[in-house]
Design brief:
Helix content: 25-40%
Radius of gyration: 15 Å
Strand content: 15-25%
Number of helices: 2
Distance between the termini: 43 Å
Structural class: alpha+beta
Length: 72
């Protein structure tokens, strides 16, 4: 993977994500650090467990926003 596919992790001077975890929406796998293209990542998350439940958390927030009177 090159720096274009993985911005922020190459020799551009940006620090890698380090010990953060990401959820890859394409492979549906948890990754440590920025391994995939930005358009396939959700995160960062502090723990692998948080990343594993990224879609659940997003669905819960969406449901809360849908139920909010301001949005109706």
């Amino acid at each position: 993977m090159n720096a274009e596919e993985n911005p922020g992790s190459g020799p551009s001077g940006d620090a890698p994500a380090g010990e953060k975890f990401w959820f890859n929406t394409k492979t549906r796998q948890v990754e440590r650090g920025r391994q995939s293209a930005w358009d396939n990542r959700m995160g960062p998350y502090d723990t692998e467990e948080e990343a594993r439940h990224a879609l659940d958390a997003a669905a819960e927030r969406s449901a809360e926003w849908d139920a909010d009177d301001w949005n109706t």
